[in-house]
Amino acid sequence: GMVNLSTGKMASRTGHVVTLEFIYDETRQKVIEVMKQSPTSREIKEEERQQIIDIVSIGAIKFAMLKYSPQTAITFDLEKSVSLNGDSGPYVQYTYARAKSVLRSAQYDYQPAEIKGPLEAEERELLRKIEHFDFCIEEAAANYAPNTVANYLLDFAKAFNLFYQKHHIIKSNKSELRLALTCAVAVVLKQGLNLLGIEAPERM
After folding, report:
1. Which of 4, 66, 165, 185 has its CA 20 to 30 A from that of 154?
2. Percentage helix, strand, coil, to 5, in the chain?
3. DSSP string computed for 149-167
4. What is the CB-side half-sphere exposure of residue 149 using CA atoms within 13 A?
5. Is residue 169 within 8 Å of 102, Cβ to Cβ?
6. Which DSSP letter does residue 73 get?
7. Rounded to an integer, what distance in angstroms lies between the CA atom of residue 77 and that of residue 38?
8. Cα 21 from chain centroid?
9. Is 40 within 8 Å of 204 (Cβ atoms)?
10. What is the pLDDT along the chain (204 residues), one digit of tens a residue?
11. pTM (2 decimals)?
12. CA quadruple 198, 186, 188, 34: dihedral positive or negative?
């Protein structure tokens, strides 16, 4: 497919073309603005902040391209590609960083957790999606369709964020299970992003 901008088609005859360098610079500026929304951004030292901005900027561009089927035209929307609340690479990266933040706060070292008693709907959904990850990778490889992985990661990140919003993780009588679940989420998100050639920052 072809790559278009949200402002319209690129056309060399009319001079309406952009370079990758231009897109990267514009994306980077947007990422800097978005990073200011993060409640933990002030805790990050400047050198690390610049590294994170680079990682997220490149990830935003890659993800914006890879979430589409290879056979379809792509519309690159700068605003949507860097959003922390939408269908974007930074949204998945931020979800990974959120999971890692929980694990750091709990000083968690992974231990297998036994499931005791009934599960909440959000816990069951996360377990179901984790179980589906291998199948998703096999399907993407068989069909040469990285968008399958990208869309899985978006759905998975949304499922974790819903779980995070509705339930206590550390301060819970099910903390052992929920921390193990959070750890598994972080592992899957990082593996999925890595398969797309996108780094997963530990903090954002």
Report:
1. 4
2. 60, 5, 35
3. HHHHHHHHHHHHHHHHHHS
4. 27
5. yes
6. -
7. 21
8. 23
9. yes
10. 667 777 666 555 555 666 788 889 989 999 998 888 777 777 788 899 999 999 999 999 999 999 998 888 777 788 888 888 878 999 999 999 999 999 999 999 877 777 888 999 999 999 999 999 999 999 999 999 999 999 999 999 999 999 999 999 999 999 999 999 999 999 999 999 999 999 999 998
11. 0.87
12. negative
Encoded tokens for 52: 């994170």
Please give the helix or strand (H or E) that residue 74 lies within, else none.
strand 74-76
Note whether 161 and 98 are within 8 A (CB): yes
Strand (E) positions, 124-188?
none
- N-to-C CA span, the chain: 32
SS3 of residue 3 by DSSP? strand
One-letter amino acid for residue 119 of the chain:
L
Assess contact for 106 and 179: CB atoms under 8 A: yes
Distance CA 8, CA 120 (A): 45
Paired strand residues for 3: 74
Three-state SS at 75: strand
